[in-house]
Amino acid sequence: xxxxxxxxxxxxxxxxxxxxxxxxxxxxxxxxxxxxxxxxxxxxxxxxxxxxxxxxxxxxxxxxxxxxxxxxxxxxxxxxxxxxxxxxxxxxxxxxxxxxxxxxxxxxxxxxxxxxxxxxxxxxxxxxxxxxxxxxxxxxxxxxxxxxxxxxxxxxxxxxxxxxxxxxxxxxxxxxxxxxxxxxxxxxxxxxxxxxxxxxxxxxxxxxxxxxxxxxxxxxxxxxxxxxxxxxxxxxxxxxxxxxxxxxxxxxxxxxxxxxxxxxxxxxxxxxxxxxxxxxxxxxxxxxxxxxxxxxxxxxxxxxxxxxxxxxxxxxxxxxxxxxxxxxxxxxxxxxx
Length: 337
Ligand SMILES: [Zn+2]
Description:
By secondary structure, the protein is mainly alpha-helical. The chain has helices at about 5-10, 15-45, 50, 55-65, 70-85, 90-95, 100-105, 115-120, 125-135, 195-205, 215-230, 230-235, 255-265, 310-320; strands at about 145, 175-180, 180-185, 270-275, 275, 285-290, 305. The two termini are about 40 Å apart.
């Protein structure tokens, strides 16, 4: 249908019909949302997202289902809660609880409080639900302690839960675009950050008397990456040499093998399915293609690859069964920061 035909269809309706149409569309949407959340939970339970070479439910929602980042975040949070407490889905379907409200509540629900909290939240506005959340789990820190460029804005109630990746989403602090090349960041930090930044300002005063907080933090981050990012070190120094004394048959992956694998895999998850590569860059771990436990060597780059945490778990589960799935019990995504 074209845009015009949608409008023409609405224009044809009498007043009461039009209002009825609006109500019934909304009702269908709510039912579909409950179905979506149940399906997302089930897709995760069957590990289908990992099988399709996506690193997380969040990434799947954004890249495959074309949801916005905020919407994906809300749905993953809500689906996580509904997977644990199925009865919540009926409140989504009947409209007594909104997706945004449930996403806010998701992290504070426990088997002990879930019935009473959901009962309190039903029929409430997002602001009222937010108040219930802070009542149960007071914020340990002020939301914003450093602000570089943008004026204050309302705290984003859809910030991703801890554990969702940036990309995956990271401990998700707020980032808002200010201009083509400037963003505004807000985050809480240890109180001594202020003194440390002030000291750096004093030291660099002659070179850059107007240095702003964001520019200083960027310098510090780039300096850290220069010295700690394995990909940067590899590009600068090349792969470390093979040592003669490396022990054949040992589980530990020798440094020269790690470097060869990093060079080959390019710092991206190497898991592939149906011609698609995962490509996640966060929290990469080395994986034995033929498991070490059944004789796969650690000192052969051809038997080692870099994979993201979810695919590492997925592959371990394929090789050794469900019992290895210890890290992913509470949410849909076990995601690196
Ligand atoms: Zn992956």
